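pls design
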């Protein structure tokens, strides 16, 4: 998991990097507001992991939710997370 400061393009600065320790491969990530949402897992269970990125130099795990169908892709739109999973499953999570 790596955080970059892109506020001064074309200069991009790495401000944080860490082995997440969340287990498995993280297949996709979506960012909305102060949170990053990561999904993992195929052909069965996986996880939605939420990271608090309000302090980009010190991101912190916020919560983890099991995804019965796994998670291979994620997108945030209008306060909802759309998670593409195995077996032609689309999970929708309301963030509010």
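designed seq:
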């Amino acid at each position: 998991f790596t955080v970059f400061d892109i506020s001064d393009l074309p200069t991009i600065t790495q401000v944080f990097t860490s082995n997440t320790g969340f287990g498995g491969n993280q297949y996709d990530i979506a960012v909305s507001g102060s949170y990053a949402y990561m999904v993992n897992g195929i052909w069965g269970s996986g996880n939605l992991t939420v990271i608090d990125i309000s302090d980009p130099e010190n991101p912190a795990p916020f919560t983890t939710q099991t995804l019965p169908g796994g998670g291979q892709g994620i997108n945030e739109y209008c306060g909802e997370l759309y998670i593409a999973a195995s077996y032609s499953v689309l999970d929708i999570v309301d963030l509010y």
